[in-house]
């Protein structure tokens, strides 16, 4: 890990559909880590964007009776809107139709070709348009793609360019061995190591333009465009100015990537082999997210159970939405949500938990000391342990674990109030009242610092109320939900 800079990137959402909670989750996990590293005084480069080439995009634009570029422009704007909707802090939004990216992809192709990793051949292959990937029989269930079982596979027979994926098997396995934390969680790392160990097949990296014209032109061969996965993966370095701005590139690369488990092969094997073929350093770490289900089912338009990020913000507010998405599932695992589950957690953790603690504490300080509390006590010894556990969880992308650590302290503080009864101490023991409220105030300040990457607006309100010479009484930040 570089000392003064930090680079994190999401995968680029494919723009054939509207933003959904899976995108929101990936963006938020990256955002929290980017804010956390910013708080540690690092210069952070946070990249996301849109993946805009390939057959699905081409077909979708035709169905909408739009030019493909106009369709992509429209969809890119929908994803850009997630920034204000979720208060994201990304400072790079790359589109694979950007001129700079196109040139970078072509230069990357040339380097792989010069190094002997690209060749041309005729082939016949089963192909899933939904995945934009070729499929072997071993990957199919009853002859169909398990991820797109309602969609018939295509049989493709044509002359394409291929990437010599097979040539990088041993070097990938050696890289994995030397970097035992390269993929998290470990069970996903085990999956990809097993996949590579079983042998790698070269994969097609071009399409005939006459059949599928929407893509980056292959250098030196105007009859072909690049396969969408080959082109899209290069965004992780083109966003850093590669190959023109090598100073910026070397300043931030290699970086940390976040992806969904459906993209495991592409991010942790294909892309890493491509980097080796282009004589570039591999990524630093890849965090792999699980799926979000709704009421026990995979989120799907056909099932009518898709929850949009905007719907959650409307019901819970922005920071509460951030909290719920980051706290409800363990990193790397599939998890299930529902409006009922989210309502319960919102009420327990935010309205009755943090909101109640903050309101009660500031109200008592205002009531008993007119907002002026004597100087705080030293930090409790147990905070060192809490801080260490919190930092470890953050560095490992375990946002729900990090939040659980802080909410344990919030719960202890609410219990501390009931046990010590400050309202009685105000009548009988003023010195002890000072100690109790100082402990609560210090704990809230400690929590505020930790919550800033997760709930930046809430942390700002808490800071304004708690950090001055006068502690301001603050109304509950999380209103009761309407039934």
TrEMBL record:
One of its GO terms (biological process) is methionyl-tRNA aminoacylation. Its EC number is 6.1.1.10. Residues 7-150, 153-361 form the Methionyl/Leucyl tRNA synthetase domain. Signal peptide: none annotated. InterPro entries: aa-tRNA-synth_I_CS, Anticodon_Met, Met-tRNA_synth, Met-tRNA_synth_2, Methionyl/Leucyl_tRNA_Synth, MetRS_core, Rossmann-like_a/b/a_fold, tRNAsynth_Ia_anticodon-bd. It is found in: Cytoplasm. Residues 388-467 form the Methionyl-tRNA synthetase anticodon-binding domain. Keywords: Aminoacyl-tRNA synthetase, ATP-binding, Cytoplasm, Ligase, Nucleotide-binding, Protein biosynthesis. Its main location: cytoplasm. The keyword Cell wall biogenesis/degradation does not apply. GO terms for molecular function: ATP binding; methionine-tRNA ligase activity. Pfam families: Anticodon_3, tRNA-synt_1g. GO terms for cellular component: cytoplasm. SUPFAM superfamilies: Anticodon-binding domain of a subclass of class I aminoacyl-tRNA synthetases (SSF47323), Nucleotidylyl transferase (SSF52374). Is required not only for elongation of protein synthesis but also for the initiation of all mRNA translation through initiator tRNA(fMet) aminoacylation. Belongs to the class-I aminoacyl-tRNA synthetase family. This is Methionine--tRNA ligase. It comes from Candidatus Kerfeldbacteria bacterium RIFOXYB2_FULL_38_14.
